[in-house]
Amino acid sequence: MKVTQADIANQLNVSRLTVSKALNDESGVSEKTKQLILATAVEMGYQKIGKRQADAFGGDDGVANRVNKQIALFLILDLDSDTYWAPVIRGMTTILSKHGYHLNLCFLTATDGDYFEFPMNFQPKETEGIIQFGNFSQKQMDQLMATKLPLVSIDKTMYEDGKLYCDTVMSTNRTPTLKMVKHLVDCGYKKIGYARDGNMQLTMNERWFGYLQGMKEVGLEVNPRHCFSGGFEAIIEAIETEKRLDHLDDFPDAIMCCNDTQAISFLQYFSKRNIKVPDVIALTGHDNIIESEIAGLTTIHVDKEELGKSAAELILWRIENRERPYRMVRMYDYELIFRGTSKLI
Q1: Domain 5-164+321-328 maps to which CATH number in 3.30.2410, 3.40.50, 3.30.420, 3.90.1480?
Q2: Which of 57, 256, 283, 332 has a CB 3.0–4.6 Å from the CB of 341, allowing a cystine?
Q3: How far is Cα 324 from Cα 28, in angstroms, rounded to an integer?
Q4: 215, 244 in Cβ contact below 8 A?
């Protein structure tokens, strides 16, 4: 059946006009929404994609030469989320298309709760493997494993009693976070805090432990009042309720954030409160998404496209080696990016 723009719009719950603008690279649509629509169009087999857009997701072979072999990618659909995932998907498509596989995007909504209904485009009999990406609950992971299909997780480790329960691909987190602590100390900051988003993924926990280890190595005590946890709105509500910005002597002079999205939210909040960054409070993020460059955010670069390539390579290996022990692939190619939200050494 021929795929239309209306089909893409229905898949993503956006307007057909938005899809049309994105596919024609017109203004009026954010870059991350364009990336989402383009990725979905490619994976659904939409034929009227220009060469420039096709090249961004693995070339014409990924669009024109469709085959029936499928790898299902399960992820949370959230157009307001950061752009971390877009290059990850691009990396997957680059590898899978070369091996004759079609990446089938299976979106879940954030309101699905602990359990989810499998989307209609997921056909287990036509699927040879699953890649999972995002903060799924344990019950949701159990649902994916119950399909008995080869499964690779990005950043979500199924680990218990010294055993892995599915293959996993992760970036390195502790060492770069530790080095960011040392950078801030070298810049003269002494009251360094940390902001977590309440996400219990291993990735976020490792970043937190990297902060703790870094503080220990530089000889600084971790002040609980300088550390924040939970959703951003809840963090700000607590800061406002306690009037903590009225007396900055009891507030961190630098805040390391678990990801760029949270750091950019802090940057916007401090701007509204007329608090100068980095003179009064420094901010750092993690991931180096597109928005962090626009915001001039000091951050830690993660090679997201390589992360996607590694996940694709691992699922292809698992399909051919179903009886081999589960394994974890770790990416170690981080880079500290110093921009305007921390002082230069």
Answers
A1: 3.40.50
A2: 283
A3: 49
A4: no
